[in-house]
Amino acid sequence: MAEEEEKSLEERIGSLRLPNDDEVFGVVEASMGSGHMKVRCKDGNMRTCRIPGRLHKRVWIREGDVVIVKPWEVQSDEKGDIVYRYTQTQVGWLRRAGIWGE
């Protein structure tokens, strides 16, 4: 039974969106309005991130959500774009796999 759970967890993690080389995990700290958020990133920076138009009406992002941030090429330590938001179930899978820990 435990082996089946382990396999299904690995399959779920395999199909889950993970950050690329130029992207980082982050947690939304505050909403600033107009599609902008303050995000505390895993690399230690606090960034002002925007929600691109393709996600703006499709994905609702709230404080405390785990997201993937793509830092801008200019002002990369201060600004970025939110490219993906994880659901609470997906965050649980990431924690069990040891990828995400707060």
Describe this entry's structure for a reader.
There is one protein chain. The protein has 102 residues and is an alpha+beta fold. It has one domain: OB fold (Dihydrolipoamide Acetyltransferase, E2P), CATH 2.40.50. Helices cover 27% and strands 33% of the residues. It has helices spanning 2-15, 53-56, 88-97; strands spanning 24-33, 36-41, 46-50, 66-71, 79-85. The protein has a 5-stranded mixed β-barrel. Strand 2 (36-41) and strand 3 (46-50) form a beta hairpin. The model has no long low-confidence stretch (mean pLDDT 86).
Structure, briefly:
27% of the residues lie in helices and 33% in strands.
Total domain count: 1
Mean pLDDT: 86
Taking strands numbered 1, 2, ... along the chain, how are they ordered across the largest sheet?
Answer: 1-2-3-5-4
Using only C-alpha atoms, the radius of gyration works out to 14 Å
The portion of residues assigned to helices is: 25-40%
Q: Could you name the CATH class? A: Mainly Beta
Order of helices and strands: HEEEHEEH
Organism: candidate division MSBL1 archaeon SCGC-AAA259I09
Protein name: Translation initiation factor 1A
Keywords: Initiation factor, Protein biosynthesis
GO molecular function: RNA binding; translation initiation factor activity
